[in-house]
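Recap slide: DUF881 domain-containing protein, sequence and predicted structure.
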Amino acid sequence: MSQELGNQDGTGANRLRKELPDEVRIPATTTVDTGEAETAPVLTGRQRLVKGLWPPRVTRAQLIVALLLFGLGFGLAVQVASNSDGDSALRGARQEDLVRILDELDDRTQRLEDEKRGLEQQRDELENSSNQAEEARRQTIEKERQLGILAGTVAAQGPGITIVIDDTKGTVEADMLLDAIQELRAAGAEAIQVNGVRVIASTFLTDSGQGVAVDGNKINAPYRFKVIGKPQDLEPALNIPGGVVQTLEKEQATVTVERSDKIVVDALRAVKRPDYARSSSR
């Protein structure tokens, strides 16, 4: 019985072995170089994430921001530590020490306030002094300008009148023109110019042939006066009865007076240093 089973088993095994096909050897695949790149392996999501994060790519801007953040954090940490140390020191101080510290702070605050008020007072004094100096300088310049106009060393302009004396007969003499200048000065004339010659306090007129000489400068008719002053005062002063205009007309001269809002007196005199007079501080 056992032998039969053994024969049956052996026969069954042989039957199964015979039913299986023989192994077929697959020849090694020959790689054909087609000139094309091999297909890259497909990466998983985790692999792609790791590949994107490593190695890290840091730009210059990111590096600068990181350094700034580091510096800010470090500064805050130092400040907090300093405040903590100060608070700890004050918390550990005795009441007498705290009172002394407060008194010292009050004294220091008071000294600073006093110093502030003193500086503000000095500032105000300097401003006032500067304003006074500026005003004095302005007045000096204005006074110098006025004196220059009177001395004939600077040009002047303003309202006034123009006088033209036409002497076709040659009968107008120096004293007649001098009378006209005196009348104009008495009426408030501030600057006078005759035929390009500036009239000043020391001006003198003389007869010179068929004309007149002003401070040695010969001028001929027609005599043109440029006068700066108030026109409403200057013109009537010449037209009073028996005045300058009537006197010249008797000499058969023609006188024309014209008012103007702008008269320019630009004839200048050289600055002459006095021979004897000197300024006095008294």
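The first helix runs from residue 2 to 19.
Confidence is low (pLDDT under 50) at residues 1-13, 28-38.
(End of recap.)
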